[in-house]
Amino acid sequence: MGDKPPGFRGSRSWIGCVEASLCLDHFGGPQGRLCHVPRGAGLQGELERLYSHFAGGGGPVMVGGDADARSKALLGVCLGPGTEAYVLVLDPHCWGAPKNPSELQAAGWVGWREVSTAFDPSSFYNLCLTSCNSKKQLPTLD
After folding, report:
1. CB atoms within 10 A of CB 125
2. How far apart are CA 70 and CA 94, in angstroms?
Protein backbone atom coordinates (compact mmCIF):
# COMPACT_ATOMS: atom_id res chain seq x y z
CA MET A 1 0.00 0.00 0.00
CA GLY A 2 3.08 2.22 0.21
CA ASP A 3 2.69 3.40 3.82
CA LYS A 4 5.64 1.34 5.15
CA PRO A 5 9.34 1.33 4.27
CA PRO A 6 10.46 -1.21 1.64
CA GLY A 7 11.91 -3.58 4.26
CA PHE A 8 8.54 -4.05 5.95
CA ARG A 9 7.19 -6.40 3.30
CA GLY A 10 8.15 -9.97 4.15
CA SER A 11 9.29 -8.98 7.64
CA ARG A 12 7.85 -10.20 10.93
CA SER A 13 6.85 -6.68 11.97
CA TRP A 14 3.33 -6.14 13.25
CA ILE A 15 0.69 -3.70 12.16
CA GLY A 16 -1.76 -1.98 14.48
CA CYS A 17 -5.46 -1.20 14.29
CA VAL A 18 -4.90 1.94 12.24
CA GLU A 19 -2.98 0.00 9.58
CA ALA A 20 -5.51 -2.85 9.71
CA SER A 21 -8.28 -0.33 9.03
CA LEU A 22 -6.31 1.08 6.07
CA CYS A 23 -5.83 -2.46 4.69
CA LEU A 24 -9.54 -3.24 5.00
CA ASP A 25 -10.34 -0.07 3.06
CA HIS A 26 -7.60 -0.55 0.47
CA PHE A 27 -8.48 -4.16 -0.29
CA GLY A 28 -12.26 -3.70 -0.22
CA GLY A 29 -12.88 -5.65 2.98
CA PRO A 30 -15.37 -4.82 5.70
CA GLN A 31 -15.51 -1.19 6.67
CA GLY A 32 -13.33 -0.38 9.71
CA ARG A 33 -14.25 2.58 11.93
CA LEU A 34 -11.50 3.75 14.30
CA CYS A 35 -12.02 4.82 17.88
CA HIS A 36 -9.09 6.09 19.99
CA VAL A 37 -9.30 5.64 23.77
CA PRO A 38 -6.57 7.72 25.49
CA ARG A 39 -6.44 5.48 28.59
CA GLY A 40 -7.65 1.93 29.22
CA ALA A 41 -9.70 3.20 32.15
CA GLY A 42 -11.71 5.17 29.56
CA LEU A 43 -12.96 1.98 27.94
CA GLN A 44 -15.75 1.93 30.51
CA GLY A 45 -17.10 5.03 28.73
CA GLU A 46 -17.10 3.22 25.35
CA LEU A 47 -19.19 0.23 26.42
CA GLU A 48 -22.49 1.63 25.15
CA ARG A 49 -20.88 2.28 21.74
CA LEU A 50 -19.50 -1.27 21.68
CA TYR A 51 -22.82 -2.74 22.78
CA SER A 52 -24.64 -0.82 20.02
CA HIS A 53 -22.01 -1.93 17.51
CA PHE A 54 -22.59 -5.61 18.25
CA ALA A 55 -26.37 -5.26 18.68
CA GLY A 56 -26.49 -3.62 15.24
CA GLY A 57 -24.74 -6.56 13.58
CA GLY A 58 -21.21 -5.17 13.72
CA GLY A 59 -18.29 -7.53 13.29
CA PRO A 60 -15.28 -8.18 15.50
CA VAL A 61 -13.48 -5.20 17.04
CA MET A 62 -9.71 -5.25 16.71
CA VAL A 63 -7.92 -3.80 19.74
CA GLY A 64 -4.35 -2.56 19.97
CA GLY A 65 -2.56 -0.57 22.65
CA ASP A 66 0.82 0.82 23.55
CA ALA A 67 1.72 -0.28 27.11
CA ASP A 68 -0.62 -3.26 26.66
CA ALA A 69 0.94 -4.86 23.60
CA ARG A 70 -1.24 -8.00 23.71
CA SER A 71 -3.53 -7.71 20.72
CA LYS A 72 -7.15 -8.65 21.23
CA ALA A 73 -10.34 -9.01 19.26
CA LEU A 74 -13.65 -8.25 20.93
CA LEU A 75 -16.60 -10.40 19.91
CA GLY A 76 -19.26 -9.16 22.33
CA VAL A 77 -20.18 -7.05 25.36
CA CYS A 78 -22.28 -7.94 28.39
CA LEU A 79 -23.49 -5.00 30.47
CA GLY A 80 -24.51 -5.95 34.00
CA PRO A 81 -26.06 -3.97 36.82
CA GLY A 82 -24.22 -0.80 37.85
CA THR A 83 -20.72 -0.61 36.40
CA GLU A 84 -20.29 -4.37 36.02
CA ALA A 85 -19.37 -5.19 32.42
CA TYR A 86 -17.66 -7.96 30.49
CA VAL A 87 -16.17 -8.27 27.02
CA LEU A 88 -15.85 -11.47 25.02
CA VAL A 89 -12.16 -11.52 24.07
CA LEU A 90 -10.60 -13.63 21.34
CA ASP A 91 -6.84 -13.99 21.09
CA PRO A 92 -6.22 -13.25 17.39
CA HIS A 93 -3.26 -15.64 17.40
CA CYS A 94 -5.71 -18.55 17.67
CA TRP A 95 -5.32 -20.98 14.79
CA GLY A 96 -6.55 -24.38 13.73
CA ALA A 97 -10.01 -25.93 13.87
CA PRO A 98 -11.24 -26.57 17.42
CA LYS A 99 -13.45 -29.58 18.06
CA ASN A 100 -15.91 -27.43 20.01
CA PRO A 101 -16.23 -24.02 21.75
CA SER A 102 -15.25 -25.53 25.12
CA GLU A 103 -11.84 -26.41 23.70
CA LEU A 104 -11.26 -22.75 22.78
CA GLN A 105 -12.23 -21.61 26.27
CA ALA A 106 -10.15 -24.25 28.04
CA ALA A 107 -7.08 -23.26 26.02
CA GLY A 108 -7.61 -19.58 26.87
CA TRP A 109 -8.17 -18.53 23.25
CA VAL A 110 -11.58 -17.03 23.99
CA GLY A 111 -13.45 -16.01 27.12
CA TRP A 112 -15.42 -13.38 28.97
CA ARG A 113 -13.19 -10.86 30.78
CA GLU A 114 -14.22 -8.19 33.24
CA VAL A 115 -13.60 -4.82 31.58
CA SER A 116 -11.92 -3.41 34.69
CA THR A 117 -9.20 -6.10 34.51
CA ALA A 118 -9.01 -6.84 30.76
CA PHE A 119 -7.33 -3.55 29.87
CA ASP A 120 -4.31 -1.71 31.27
CA PRO A 121 -5.67 1.54 32.78
CA SER A 122 -2.55 3.50 31.73
CA SER A 123 -2.33 2.22 28.12
CA PHE A 124 -4.00 3.95 25.20
CA TYR A 125 -6.08 1.78 22.89
CA ASN A 126 -7.12 1.97 19.26
CA LEU A 127 -10.28 0.10 18.39
CA CYS A 128 -11.21 -0.85 14.84
CA LEU A 129 -14.94 -1.58 14.70
CA THR A 130 -15.68 -3.64 11.62
CA SER A 131 -19.00 -3.73 9.85
CA CYS A 132 -20.37 -6.31 7.46
CA ASN A 133 -20.89 -3.62 4.84
CA SER A 134 -18.06 -2.94 2.46
CA LYS A 135 -17.58 0.57 1.09
CA LYS A 136 -16.19 -0.83 -2.14
CA GLN A 137 -17.84 -3.31 -4.45
CA LEU A 138 -15.49 -6.09 -5.41
CA PRO A 139 -15.53 -7.03 -9.09
CA THR A 140 -17.79 -9.95 -9.89
CA LEU A 141 -16.68 -12.91 -11.94
CA ASP A 142 -19.14 -13.35 -14.83
Report:
1. 23
2. 13
Residue 130 lies in a domain: no
Is residue 39 classed as helix, strand or coil in its secondary structure?
coil
What CATH number did the domain enclosing 48 receive? 3.90.70.130
**Domain housing 118:** 35-124
% the chain with pLDDT above 90: 30
Q: Which residues contact 33 (CB under 8 A, 6 or more apart)?
A: 21, 128, 129, 130, 131
In a domain, 105, yes or no: yes
1-17: average pLDDT:
83
Asked, for residue 42, whether it belongs to a domain, the answer is yes
**How many Å is the Cα radius of gyration of the chain?**
16
64-76 pLDDT per residue, tens: 888 777 778 999 9
Which residues contact residue 51 at a Cβ distance below 8 angstroms, ignoring those fewer than 6 apart? Answer: 77, 79
The total domain count for the chain is: 1
